[in-house]
Amino acid sequence: MTFPEWTKPSIYGALGGAIAVSIFGFTWGGWTTSSNAQTMAQDFATDEVTLAMVPVCLNISEADPQRTEKLAILQDLTGFSRRNAMMETGWATRPGSDNSDRDLADACLARLALDGS
Questions:
Q1: Which of the pair, 117 or 59, is modelled with greater confidence?
Q2: How far apart are CA 31 and CA 95, in angstroms?
Q3: Distance of CA 16 to the CA centre of its chain
Q4: CA-CA distance, 100 to 116, in Å (whole number)?
Q5: Which phi and psi (to 5°) does residue 93 adopt?
Q6: Whether 74 contacts 109, CB under 8 Å
Q7: Could you report how far apart the first and last alpha carbons of the chain are, in Å?
Q8: What's the pLDDT score for residue 69?
Q9: I need a labelling partner for 72 at 20 to 30 A (CA). Which of 50, 66, 83, 113 fits?
Q10: Cα separation of 56 and 60, whole Å?
């Protein structure tokens, strides 16, 4: 079976076009693989849970009898030491957990700074 002479350039053109479209789609077109989509969804869910827990963190801080002393310590610190001190207060502990959550501590610190406390 013989193919016409024009089929060879057509096949190369179609193959080159498919490669170009794939590169364009995955880099600028917004296409994603299944594993990357699952990772993005998990990250988004974790962020949303953290944001939902910020009011709990603020309520725990308001109920703490040593709130003013702890806030004074937090205001004197900066950077990582501030976040670590926030985690040591116990305010950034999710219900049902024994350990403080780093992301919740950061979010709660941001909210405390916005409240002007």
A1: 59
A2: 37
A3: 37
A4: 23
A5: -95, 125
A6: yes
A7: 83
A8: 92
A9: 50
A10: 6
What amino acid occupies position 2? T
Which residues make beta-bridge pairs with 93? 100
| Residue 32 scores a pLDDT above 80 | yes
User: Is the predicted pLDDT of residue 26 greater than 60, yes or no?
Assistant: yes
pLDDT at 45 over 60: yes
Q: Using CA atoms, how far apart are residues 11 and 63, in angstroms rounded to an integer?
A: 72
Query: What pTM value is reported for the model?
Result: 0.67
- The secondary structure of 23-35 as a DSSP string is HHHHHTS----HH
State the residue for tokens 């600028």: 28
Residue pointed to by tokens 């479209």: 21
The one-character DSSP state at 100 is B
Give tens-digit pLDDT for 57-111: 999 999 999 999 999 899 888 888 999 999 999 999 988 889 999 999 999 999 8
